[in-house]
Structure formats: C-alpha cells, structure tokens
Design goal:
- The chain is mainly alpha-helical.
- The protein has two domains: 99 residues, no CATH class; 92 residues, no CATH class.
- The protein contains nine helices and no strands.
- The two termini are 32 Å apart.
- Belongs to the derlin family.
- It is found in: Endoplasmic reticulum membrane.
- One of its GO terms (cellular component) is endoplasmic reticulum membrane.
C-alpha cells in the first residue's frame, strides 16, 4: 500500500488531479447509479457538468482509458509542459471547451470530412480516398443523375447478378423504396461485435 502512495505522490499535479477525479467519480457513480439521473437544472445540481468529464466506463475498457489518460497526461506534463502547470491547465481547459462544441454533418459530406481529416493527420493527399470519392460520385451520376435528365440508362446491373440474388430489387428511376435505419440499432450491433471480439 505504501508503494501505491509513493507512486501517487510522485505524479505531476495535473495528472494526479485527473486520475484521482476519474477514479473517485467513476467508482462513486458506479456504486450509486440512482444518483446519476440528470437533473442539474431542476435541482440545481451544477456539479454534473464537471463530473461528466471524468466519468469513465467501469470495466476493462475504462481501465485502459484510465491508463492512457495517465500515460499521456504524465508524458505531456513532464515533457512539453515541464514546469509550466498553468500552460497545461489552460491546454486542458481549451480541450474541454472544444470537446463540448459539436455539430451535425450530413452523410453526403462525410467522405469529404474523412478526406480532410486524412490530409490533416498525414499531411499529404491520400489518393485512394480521392479515387473512392470520385468513383462513388461517378457511379451516382451515371446511375441516377444522367438517366434522370436524358432518359438513357448507362449503367445497368448485369442479369446474372439478379439471378444470383433473386430477391433483389431491380432499380429504376421511378418510385424507389427508401430504407431508414435507426442509428441506435447499428450502434448496438457494433457494440455486440466489439464485445464478441474481446472474448
């Protein structure tokens, strides 16, 4: 027990603050889940805005996230922000304020957002992503836009594919069925896949 105390006392100030807040808040809210009801405005429980930044999932994924927070925070605080605690606190406050800013992106713009992120991360143009965007737009134009304006269908699905998949809907330019998928269902499916991959 003394070793844990010595390890904890040697942590830099901000890392110690972050790790202790995550452990205390996560354990407290896991042990008393009935207190986790969101009524910060009705009952003036403004601390919930603070505690939401330190609530990690309870389990192995939360432990991994806690370790990563500890590792990278300690690394930042002992290298880039060495003897600059005020700068590190300002950095954390800036990051927290940016996390709370969110906006919706229409699905049709998502490939361009991914392209922008790839360019920002790797600092060069990923030509495979550009080729994918061009190919997708070319298919959409030749299958949907051009036939709608000219009446000439340039891309037709081969008959052998319809024979291979007999229940397929043969597309035409009139009255296409729409499929609405609830995103919560897809998240549940991905959560199940992720859970099974851990087993």
């Amino acid at each position: 027990m003394d070793e844990i105390g010595n390890w904890f006392n040697k942590l830099p100030f901000c890392t110690k603050f972050l790790v202790s807040n995550v452990v205390i808040i996560t354990v407290a809210l896991t042990m008393w889940p009935h207190n986790h009801i969101i009524n910060e405005l009705e009952k003036f429980q403004l601390w919930r805005h603070y505690s939401s930044f330190f609530l990690f999932p309870f389990g192995i994924s939360g432990a991994i996230e806690l370790y990563l927070l500890y590792y990278f925070s300690k690394d930042l605080e002992t290298t880039k922000f060495s003897r600059a605690t005020a700068d590190y606190v300002y950095y954390l406050l800036f990051i927290i304020s940016m996390i709370t800013v969110s906006f919706d992106i229409m699905a049709k713009y998502l490939p361009f957002i991914f392209l922008l992120l790839d360019v920002l991360y790797v600092l060069y143009i990923p030509y495979d992503v550009v080729a994918g965007i061009i190919a997708g737009h070319l298919y959409f134009y030749l299958k949907e836009r051009y036939p709608a304006s000219s009446g000439i269908q340039l891309l037709n699905t081969p008959r052998w594919l319809y024979e291979m998949f007999p229940n397929s809907y043969r597309s035409s330019n009139t009255s296409k069925p729409t499929i609405n998928i609830d995103l919560r269902v897809t998240h549940v499916i991905w959560d199940i896949v992720a859970l099974l991959s851990l087993l």
